[in-house]
Amino acid sequence: MNSKTIKNIAYELGADLCGIASVERFQDAPSGFSPLDIYSKCESVIVFAKRVPAGSLSAESCVPYTHASNMVTLEVDRIGVEFCLILEDSGVETVPIPSDDPSEYWEAETQYARGVLSLRHAGYLAGLGVMGKNTLLVNEKYGNMIQMGAILVDIKLESDPIADFSVCRENCSLCMDKCPQKALDGETVNQKNCRTLSNFVTERGFVLKRCHLCRSVCPNVLGKGK
Ligand code: B12
Ligand code: SF4
Ligand code: SF4
Asked: How far apart are CA 73 and CA 101, in angstroms?
């Protein structure tokens, strides 16, 4: 099993992107949130992504975008689990990372959650793209409209080169200026402020993504593949 075979499996399963990072690249991850904290036998992290349909960003209602995001999240999770089964049949031990929920870490007062592994950082380290001031990972071809997943494996694989293109134009601050919750400072997100709109809970308990402005106003929303 080598990097090329692994990527072919990812594409056959329906991923649009796949990159690999050796576990050594994660040495600066916060304690408790590195691949080795999750799985001590981890040697490599395989990160893959699917495009999110972009037309939903133009809808006047937030329901289509919420639906598109939710369905792609499910699809990425399906790919991850299938990926694990295929690799397991070849004798590779695999650990799937959820594309979104569930996660354990939660600071109630600030409503700050942390995924078991930050997929934006993992995507960066696996060469899938570079993070912008809106904190989102931008892929050169598909822009920020990508949903990521990852699996941890116990075999050494060749790592991809880290992307080094520049994302944000020097004076651009569109995402920060347009954020209705003033949740962005160019480095991180105030989760509590963002959640009010990003995870808006209706009276009937549906969770709607009522805002995606930091994603949609960005000149990198669709990348060069548009
Ligand atoms: C919690 C969460 C949120 C939170 C926080 C978002 C955030 N930027 O972290 C809220 C509710 C605000 C949110 C909103 C959205 N989210 Co969200 N979210 C997540 C989730 C589940 C966990 C992210 C997390 O753990 N954040 C906390 C930490 C990691 O961030 P931090 O505090 O800034 O980290 C600091 C340090 O801890 C350290 N660090 C942390 N980990 C590591 C690791 C290494 C190796 C290093 C070196 C450093 C390091 O670096 C940071 C700077 O100091 C991820 C899925 C995942 N597992 O990654 C999706 C994810 C980030 N979300 C995503 C999306 C699409 C969105 C929305 C666009 C949805 C929408 N409304 O349209 C918005 C965008 C808002 C924004 N600008 O971020 C996508 C991003 C895709 C992309 N292209 O980058 C993800 C990756 C889901 C996915 N599977 O693709 N989300
Ligand atoms: S999703 Fe909306 S509220 Fe959240 S950071 Fe982006 S622009 Fe701000
Ligand atoms: S809107 Fe501008 S500042 Fe924000 S991430 Fe996109 S390019 Fe960077």
From this structure: 10
What is the pLDDT at residue 226? 62
Residue 12 belongs to domain spanning: 3-167
In a domain, 217, yes or no: no
pLDDT tens across 193-209, in order?
A: 999 999 999 999 999 99
What angle (nearest 5°) sits at the alpha carbon of residue 145, between those of residues 144 and 150?
85
For range 186-190, the mean pLDDT: 97
Q: Which residue's C-alpha comes closest to atom 2 of ligand 2?
A: 211
The answer to whether residue 79 is domain-embedded is yes
The count of domains in the chain is 1
What confidence tens digit (pLDDT) does each residue in 114-127 have?
A: 999 999 999 999 99
Mean pLDDT of the chain: 97
Q: Is the CB of 64 under 6 A from ligand 3?
A: no
In a domain, 80, yes or no: yes
Q: How far apart are CA 80 and CA 1, in angstroms?
A: 17
Q: Which of 169, 174, 176, 213 to mutate to test the pocket of ligand 3 (most atoms within 8 A of CB)?
A: 174
| Strands (E) located in 52-145 | 94-97, 105-107, 112-114, 130-131, 137-138
